Amino acid sequence: MTAFNTTLKNDTFLRALLREPTEYTPVWLMRQAGRYLPEYRATRERAGSFLDLCKSTELATEVTLQPLERFPLDAAILFSDILTIPDAMGLGLYFAEGEGPKFERPLRDEAAIKALAVPDVGTELKYVTDAVSSIRKALDGRVPLIGFSGSPFTLACYMIEGGGSDTFSRVKTLMYDRPELLHHILAINAQTVTDYLNAQIEAGAQAVQIFDTWGGALAFGKYQEFSLAYMQRIIAGLTREKDGRRVPVIVFTKGGGLWLEEIAASGCDAVGLDWTVDLGDARRRIGDKVALQGNFDPNALFASPAAIEAEVARLLRAYGAGSGHVFNLGHGISQFTNPEHVTVLVDSLHQLSRPYHQ
Ligand code: CP3
Question: Which CATH class, in words, describes the domain spanning 12-357?
Fold first, then answer.
């Protein structure tokens, strides 16, 4: 039973992910709802904290739609966070002012690791699926809604380190000393992510993205064993069709440029690219198997409108003619970005990309 409009007014994003013809290159931005928007900061203030904002169906819906009111984006992304999963596992997520995410009970010994279990997504993460349904209703078919999760390895980084890290020394120590313990965590994470993404799809997510933010920190061989293999396992367990449409899966490994062929063979529909790879080269390597998403340098948004437009034009030339490219940043938008520069990016892209789709 689906309680909302299943007819999309703009399905350009979904068609591009399946490499079907489109009229222009669609765009959304990682972290498109966030602190660079004054209206987001106002709603967050009202919510009290970031986590309260994520847990309020009404406010999470409101901030998801904020960037769409300002810019003609081609997709919405659920407002939530990747760290909802370890929080549901009982690790105690909190945000210390100016310090990013932290856990009260990180996985610091074997007993804690052995006690880790797959949470009941239907109850522990109901606030997320409630937000998905509410956002779908509010969108009323305007653009598709993207659901998301962190990758098992990226989640494990936060769960073991207890917060962000520059070195990942704890995770890597565990990986080299006690690989079976890290595999145990990753297997539990993979099962949880599978349940979580399927619940989001059931609630109305029309595409899903796996954020593997830290996979690129792994050594050759370790990436395949400790990150990619678990994403592959998740993809094999996902609902791939809903309401008569394919639900595309996007895999984004930041720093994964060396492993594009292997990522493209994971079963995903699209591969997210950071800004370190050449888009044309990526298309030659894997563009016959999957769609590509990215790879605008988020820091280029600090430059002048003319420079932003030139960079958009460069990426369009690099990809070349035809469908299969979803424009996006190579990582999340900075909180210090001028929203007017986002308007320049979206408008110039929509205009300049049309000749590539004739
Ligand atoms: O893209 C979107 O607009 C959807 C919302 C979204 C958020 N986080 C909201 C958020 C998404 C998709 C994420 C993913 C996420 N969260 C990732 C993977 C993508 C990436 O950026 O690498 C990671 C690693 C996290 C963990 C996380 N959450 C960190 C490291 C931080 C603090 C850093 C920061 O930017 O402040 C968060 C907090 C967070 N998640 C904010 C937002 C809007 C800022 C919270 C605030 O309002 O203070």
Answer: alpha beta
